[in-house]
Specification:
Distance between the termini: 57 Å
Radius of gyration: 18 Å
Order of helices and strands: HHHH
Shape: elongated
Helix content: over 70%
Strand content: under 5%
Number of strands: 0
Low-confidence stretches: none
Structural class: mainly alpha
Length: 123
């Protein structure tokens, strides 16, 4: 049961992160006339997404489990008992938020370093 909930928690957070990546990629494509600026803005916005995910992780225990997308994704037969549902759902969502925040932070660092390299390559 926990493996299924963990998989769905990861899928739920990944879906939101995918939309954020799509928005960042679209913005970077719009700035493609200035590659250093596009990379820098991509890095900054990726860092913002990472910070938002950290805030979500910090508040995961406070959000009622019945109001999460994860709870809606679970079939009624897959849902944990109400006595432990808040603990399980918040713990697994927190782990997924932290997991993706780490990836966005790494991506942000890579994009900012690339923007510095591109900006200094023309000198």
């Amino acid at each position: 049961m926990l493996d299924r909930i963990e998989t769905l928690a990861t899928r739920s957070v990944a879906r939101g992160c995918g939309f954020a990546m799509l928005a960042i990629g679209t913005m970077m494509a719009g700035l493609s006339y200035e590659p250093a600026l596009a990379l820098e803005m991509g890095g900054i916005f990726s860092l913002v997404v990472s910070l938002v995910l950290l805030i979500f992780a910090a508040n995961a225990a406070r959000k009622p489990y019945r109001e999460t997308e994860l709870w809606l994704m679970l079939e009624p037969s897959e849902r944990p008992p109400t006595k432990v549902a808040q603990s399980i759902v918040s713990r697994l969502l927190r782990a997924a938020y932290l997991h993706f925040a780490y990836y966005f932070a790494n991506g942000s660092c890579a994009l900012i370093v690339m923007s510095i390299v591109v900006a200094n390559s023309g000198r």
